[in-house]
Fold this protein.
Amino acid sequence: TTALLNFLDVWGIGNRSMFRTLRDLILRPGYMIRDYLSGMQMAYFPPFQMLFLLTTLSFIILYGVNIRGITYEDLRQEALTQVEQMGGEDPVSTEAGAAAFNWIMDFTEQYPNLVSLLYIGIFSLFLFPFYRYNKVIPNMRYSEFMVATIYIANMISLYELVMMFFCCPVTITSIIASLTALIPLKQLSGFSWLRTILSIAGAFLALMVAYIILVGIVLLFLFFKPTL
């Protein structure tokens, strides 16, 4: 018991701020983030530390601590089968897709916190222009928005953890959890529901365009490299 309490104290889980943060992320996420950015940092659990804890907890659930005992390898094999089916009858495309998928999965498994930060950092770059000037925080800095985005990611993780424990389908889990991001973004900015939805859609569109351009540049480099 003493060892467990010491462990909780080291991570800060045993103090009131963790439970208050969990409660407010569920009931009033956007308002909680506004309070944190306005100077109430001591009242809430640190966003980065919470992200690392939730990422670790998600892998614990993915390693079989769930209601059906489904493991990370089970989900990996299911996803790999889908990747191979997308490759069709072309063995080269299938092999390349499987190799790339396995590399990504291995990297994610080895560096889960780094991957989480990369995803959040990249998407926040595309979302930030839509929220830099808003009704509540007229001239928001990127550092503030990054903190807000991490807290939103933590909120999404909370919902995902519950659905992962009950082994809900991955696609449904991702869609439902992602839709919950609308709530804190609206509360944080004071925008209408329509503008909040359009801002997220615009960020995704910009991200996809950037991804297509990047892939095109890589393919052109690979195509013309032998002739250089």
Observations:
- The chain is about 75% helix and 0% strand.
- The chain has a mean pLDDT of 79.
- The first helix runs from residue 2 to 11.
- The radius of gyration is 20 Å.
